[in-house]
Amino acid sequence: MLITVYGANGYQGKLTLAESSRHDVEVRLVGRDRTRLESAAAEVGIPDADLRVAGLDDRAALVAALAGSDVVINCAGPFTTSGAVMVDAAIAAGAHYVDTAGEQLYVKGVFDSFDGDAERAGVTVVPAVNDGCLPGDLLAHLIAERTGPLAEITVSHFITGAAGLSRGSLRSALATMDTMRSGGLIYDDGAWRSGIPARRDRITLPGGESVAMAALPTCEVVTIPRHVQVDHVESLLEATLKASLETPITPELIAGLPPGPNEHDRAAQQFTYLLDAVDHRGQQTRGVIRGRDTYGTTAVAAVEAARRLAAGDTAAGVRTPAQAFDPADFLETLSGHDLSWTIEAIPTVK
Ligand SMILES: NC(=O)c1ccc[n+]([C@@H]2O[C@H](COP(=O)([O-])OP(=O)(O)OC[C@H]3O[C@@H](n4cnc5c(N)ncnc54)[C@H](OP(=O)(O)O)[C@@H]3O)[C@@H](O)[C@H]2O)c1
């Protein structure tokens, strides 16, 4: 099985390479700069790995560099500006495709533009395989299996610890600042809509604390309605964290920062993602995902997704995580990496 990592020398790319090398797979590094790729391969302990140089501006070279791969994992953000080129090249090379994007409109664009091409090529494309969208999409499916059709799902993200964002995440936030500030798309009444306010501005944490929230343009809003019968999906982030994401930061300032959180801060970082579902009778159900180390979890999820695509018989086309993989089984795999999940009906107050 050959897994190719594009953007292999980036922060997420190296974590993904390291995770790939823990499995019995061949790994190929592709990117636009040979020296940076060579040092990435050396850094993760695979100095003899296959390595190809191809930028995004030369489609033929890119397709040739991906040829022979079972799966391509694309870690080269911002995806808003470059992701579509990679999806197209992977399909042309006949390789399944996974990426670590968290950019909502890009991910919607992949579903809108590439489903037919991927189906005709017989390959599966799964964007947004990251620490948030993958478990959120899988858990939403498991919730709906228990509840039946839903009136709404609210996805809330909480992250604690000193680990900040990687330079790549900051560049992605900068590239999508208008969407970030507007709150992005909300799924409402059968369509994805922009410019409508979120219904909720506070969420109560499992311990009982009520927290101010603001709309966050996550990919879960794009993926969940594709397999869950639901009228409304919105997503939220703690308001203080959202305000810090909206603080203007220049490319020059980003370039001067460390590539991403160090190992110690990654290990101490904890995330909680809540999925609050309400059915048509008003019955509430809460799904809770808990984990640590967003970037490490993303690497594990991306490599697991790639291995499943290469080994399995997933239907061709653009798919959400829950459409491509068995939700409970995939989450079970992540439990080996400190991710846990629960689903609980919330008693109705009379
Ligand atoms: N939950 C989430 O939403 C989530 C979680 C994890 C990661 N992510 C996303 O993953 C992405 C990667 O983050 P990171 O921290 O690894 O970024 P990074 O360290 O800046 O690395 C980016 C990589 O992409 C390559 N690249 C960027 N633009 C390119 C272009 N135009 N042509 C060719 N190569 C290009 C870079 O190559 P050079 O070194 O040659 O510039 C580098 O290898 C970000 O978009 C981040 O938001 C999202």
UniProtKB/TrEMBL annotation:
Q: Which Gene3D superfamilies match?
A: NAD(P)-binding Rossmann-like Domain (3.40.50.720)
| Residue ranges occupied by any Saccharopine dehydrogenase NADP binding domain in the UniProt entry | 3-126
Signal peptide span per the entry? none
> Known InterPro entries for this protein?
NAD(P)-bd_dom_sf (IPR036291), Sacchrp_dh_NADP-bd (IPR005097)
Q: Which Pfam families match?
A: Sacchrp_dh_NADP
PANTHER family named among the record's database cross-references: SACCHAROPINE DEHYDROGENASE
* Name of protein: Short subunit dehydrogenase-like uncharacterized protein
Instruction: Tell me the organism.
Output: Nocardia bhagyanarayanae
Q: Lineage, please?
A: Bacteria, Bacillati, Actinomycetota, Actinomycetes, Mycobacteriales
